[in-house]
Amino acid sequence: xxxxxxxxxxxxxxxxxxxxxxxxxxxxxxxxxxxxxxxxxxxxxxxxxxxxxxxxxxxxxxxxxxxxxxxxxxxxxxxxxxxxxxxxxxxxxxxxxxxxxxxxxxxxxxxxxxxxxxxxxxxxxxxxxxxxxxxxxxxxxxxxxxxxxxxxxxxxxxxxxxxxxxxxxxxxxxxxxxxxxxxxxxxxx
Length: 189
Ligand SMILES: C[S@@+](CC[C@H](N)C(=O)[O-])C[C@H]1O[C@@H](n2cnc3c(N)ncnc32)[C@H](O)[C@@H]1O
Prior knowledge:
Blueprint: H1 11-17, H2 23-30, E1 37-41, H3 47-52, E2 58-63, H4 66-69, E3 78-82, E4 95-101, H5 110-120, E5 121-132, H6 137-150, H7 158-166, E6 169-176, E7 180-187
Parallel strand pairs: 1-2, 1-4, 2-3, 4-5
Antiparallel strand pairs: 5-7, 6-7
Bound molecules: S-adenosylmethionine.
């Protein structure tokens, strides 16, 4: 059983309750044209997919939790995929966009994660990261809750996340919003 299999039934409710739903900002930062193949890494219950897939050609939700994936709402262009983000079973250069929303800090071995995402993205493909500022007060509360629920997590500051992203991508957007941040990187050709 994976970490989120314990809480998948309550996940979407908790996101609403704690006001962690940043889908409008993600959409604005992504600027989808409608013809993109999207990989939502750690895409969970598909709450972003529901919002973004109508503006995508194909939308893949990759997650290691069968419970989370069981909540995904069916749509003709939405494909839930069970797997580990550090060992993706996709061909090289498969995707136009990769999204990691509230996901990075749950995954150990960030280098392997980024290598895999860079591998499956097409040249000029974009990666969007949304995550939480490690030392912010609100994040400290979230970290405590997640430690209680899941054990160790891997939070970064926005500057640490930016430096890591820059090893693989050109930064095209870096938005600091207090307790959370959004980074958009473009894969080098
Ligand atoms: C906090 S949830 C975020 C879900 C979704 N991205 C959102 O914004 O609502 C983190 C998700 O990452 C998934 N996850 C954690 N480690 C993973 C890994 N190594 N490979 C794939 N998914 C993983 C979890 O199962 C969980 O669904």
